[in-house]
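Table S7 (text form). Paired inputs.
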Amino acid sequence: MRQSEDELLAEALGRINKGGKFASRFLKNDIAEFDRELPLAFDPAVEHVRTVLVQLADGAAPEPLEAGADRVTFRVLTGGGYLSMNPVVVTMDATRKGEWTTTVHVRAVAKEGLVKQRAAQKTAERVAALLDGADSSP
């Protein structure tokens, strides 16, 4: 069984701070989502999505959640916010729309504490820049 976004974030926060896993259930989620239409055939678009996620996760391989002939979903856990210390779960879903068009849905989720870092929103902006081929170094 695959872990939910909340479970992944709780475990990641628990690795940072001993009480982080417990505290995570009381923190609100910062969620950012967007859709992007890529002018690429499905297979090259999937490779582009995979490359973006590897860059985002500092070389870690993305976890495939779902794979089919017309749809592939990947997920990575990366850092966001101040010094990239806030864990962010990024899920990208590539769907074949046409012969030369692929739609990519991006969802970034992070926990927000008292200090609002908007880690998910900033990570989603970074993903958008990477999808467009721009260098988005923090």
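Next pair, protein 2 of 2.
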Amino acid sequence: MTADEMYTAGRQLEASGNVGDSPEVERSYRKAAAAGSVEAMSRLGLLLEGRVQAQLEGRSEYSGDFVEADSWYRKAADRGDTWAAFALGRLYADKFNDWNAAVPWFSKAAAQQQPGHWQAKERLQQGPAGVERRRADARYLDELGDRASSRSGTGGGSGGCMVAAILLVLPEMLALLSLPGYFA
């Protein structure tokens, strides 16, 4: 199997949305990354960071192996992956609480016209205050989900939680759409 085929197999398995598949997804990404797939390096960083698991479980808060995620993001970013540079900046800002270390990675991503560049530009514009706002939003969404789960007796959220989530991000999305060059 080629690196691209291993990456695609892992990506398809991840897309199935089964939390129990995470170990196999990680094995596929590790093999593909070791064989040189930059996409697998980025995705492995995301998986190790804990974001994939949290998404599959419907949580906004997450934790994982941030040090190893850093290593894989860095390898991908050093090979020109703009999204990995953004993810590395986000990791430094959000999880390592080091805005100064995040800025060069956000700047590197913002300088490109590839996936991740507009998010990096936004993060640079918002600065450290944006990090704190996102943390507060994530805690609020998790609390809403917990309350909805306890009321409904299910592990999933509710329509009310989704509405609250949309209302929280709607102003930010509208602001992004009004940025000059957004559709360029």
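The two ends are 37 Å apart (CA to CA).
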